[in-house]
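Students often ask why we bother encoding 3D structure as a string. The short answer is that it lets us treat folding as translation between two languages. Here is a chain of 125 residues written in the first language.
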Amino acid sequence: MDLFSRLKDMKILLIDDDEWIRDSMTLFFEGEGCRLVAVETAEEGLDALSESSYDIVIADYKLPGMDGLEFFKHLQKSHQNLIKILITAYGSKEVVSEAFKLGIQEFIDKPFTSETIESSLSRLI
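And here it is in the second language, the structure alphabet:
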């Protein structure tokens, strides 16, 4: 079974303040028949998670308001079974170390391609 066949039964939440990334990722996943909800802020991400269940969360590190690491801290106890991916252009050793302590399974550097996302998801599911 290929990646997108498996993803069709899953729901993905994307949190990124870059409108171009939100729009392009939405078009990409929807074009493959997958369900992706894209929001701009971590606070909107928390609201989305309180209203619906998700299988995968992809969040940017640098966000207005709460950053991606702080967002994932909020999920530690209540959403342990999520596949968690952090994307960033600011990948210091400290950020990566903290990300893995929070249970984030994958770290993707910006800029990235759809192939990068596909490869990461293939490893994780």
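Translate back mentally: Residues 19-31 form the longest helix (13 residues). Keep this in mind for the problem set.
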